[in-house]
């Protein structure tokens, strides 16, 4: 007998529509404070409200926020730039923003001994369980799935990041892969371990999406959260059809750690799971994994 398990990450049109009807639309452009060039795919949101968005490739964004949130803090961030914190009322008055490039600190250079980093290992969930999928249904840019990844041996040299797509009815979607540092309690922080954005596009075909990062020489020496963040949907004059989903492979595992956040700059949560069979202490995990050399 096979039990069918399903985990759904959804932000319904009704919920969004209700919030938007009472909100004020803010539109602006985010630029590099030094060159004044647009900064693509910037995260912008109100962490306290789980409300946010992601700028497009030209740094343009649209954010809907209620006027009574005027004193709330807006957080604006992008890899390579100093995070910007400002009250919502300031953003309402001046929606065009500039981010200042972050000074690059030169740390100690780790030189690998001859023969180091020879053994290839897969970390994270690479094989989906039969009958288990993680659905993402959202028209909210910044919606993100996360998987806790444990490094058995450290340090390790990152080779690739991988996503198992079980089914995609939503059309081409662009995602950003993030690696987050964990806090003392095992929850993701805002600190990222990669030095630049890593983007991939999910086409209608199912299969494994892979980004080769071997040439980057990224050395990892800690456990991390691997996040898959929605940053771009197909341009369309009509709203995204929320009956169409993208589904990722997954499994129920002892110690499984699935994290979700529904908005850019929002709070991470561990979703609850219902099933028609016994869980036996297992928790859901999504099929996001890395390959490393040890």
TrEMBL record:
The keyword Transport does not apply. The keyword Iron-sulfur does not apply. It comes from the Bacteria. It holds the Pfam family CarbopepD_reg_2. One of its GO terms (molecular function) is carboxypeptidase activity. Residues 1-25 form the signal peptide. Keywords: Carboxypeptidase, Hydrolase, Protease, Signal. This is Carboxypeptidase-like regulatory domain-containing protein. The lineage of its organism: Bacteria, Pseudomonadati, Bacteroidota, Cytophagia, Cytophagales.
